Amino acid sequence: MNESMKPKVGEYAPYYGKYIDKIINEDISKLLLNQVEEIRKFYEEMGEEKSNLAYAEGKWTAKEVLNHIADTDRVMTFRALCFSRGETSPLPGFDQDIYVSNARANDIPLMNLLEDFEMQRYALVSMLKTLPIASYTKTGIASNHEVSVRALFYIMAGHVLHHLEVLKERY
Description:
Blueprint: H1 17-20, H2 28-51, H3 62-84, H4 96-103, H5 110-130, E1 139-142, E2 145-148, H6 149-170
Antiparallel strand pairs: 1-2
Helix pairs in contact: 2-5, 2-6, 3-4, 3-5, 3-6
């Protein structure tokens, strides 16, 4: 998937524009994989102890952010699979705060969370590489909004860029 495959406005809910706009002239497959190393490097430098801390009261810990990223990748990958295969039923949204709370990421060793994210990323990139090009523009309804398959991959990459910016700024 190259720049010509970048989703157009209208292929995703306006909220996701902030993620998609972060990606300029990038090979999305390479970016998705490069983010594995960037995340790993950031968290390994942070370390286990500091990753259990939040930057402010009521905010997620760095581990919770990492787990949230992996969960979001899972949800978006599932949506991409469904829509690329012609699913016509609307898919539900997900409440990120409930997911974070129930994941109990602070009880999981950091290295396990990093491995989980890495494996999820390899799986989604493998799926992306095996999708017929014609399926990139297929759409479906998720969270009450129409979204294209290609937009979902851009959303995942931009979502990580967003959280890395916050992590680097506040943690």
